[in-house]
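Researcher: Go.
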Amino acid sequence: MNSELAFNLHPGAPTSIRVASEAPEDLSHAVELCFPMETVDAVLLWHGHQIRIGYKYDVSVILEPLVDMLEACLESSPEHTFFGSDTLTADFRLSYRDEEVVISANWESTLGPPLSVLNQEPTVIIKKTRFLECWARLLSVTANAVRESNIASYVREDLASLDNLLNRIAARNTKTSSDRNFGR
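Model: Structure:
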């Protein structure tokens, strides 16, 4: 199967709202506040099956473990990540083969196909560059929405940390692409 069908993530173009009066406790809370209930979901493709990821109640809940997972991926450290929102519950175990990420997943809850279908094909192998790029796009959309929501000042340090991660992913992917182009 084409690796883009095996694993891909489309962040969509969700609507965000300006938050007038509530100060978020942390970045996850800021994400929950800045997205309305009815907005476009991100869509994760797993072996061609579409899994919806809501910004308000999924991304806000999985944000911290997602960041930890991407940090580990940058270091090629084996990682076990649990995503535990109501509509996206899954265990991801990451391992590596050269410049590939091997994702072994156990799906427990999704807005998408039946769990039995997803768990029939529990493993995806994808280029590390592509894996990082997919999740970075979702995090970039999320960070920009928080900035536009009028509450970024409350979570300035968290946004700076997220920006740092996104910059490291971009630098790593640029270097890897450059190395590939010069035969290194």
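Model: The CA atoms of residues 14 and 39 lie 5 Å apart.
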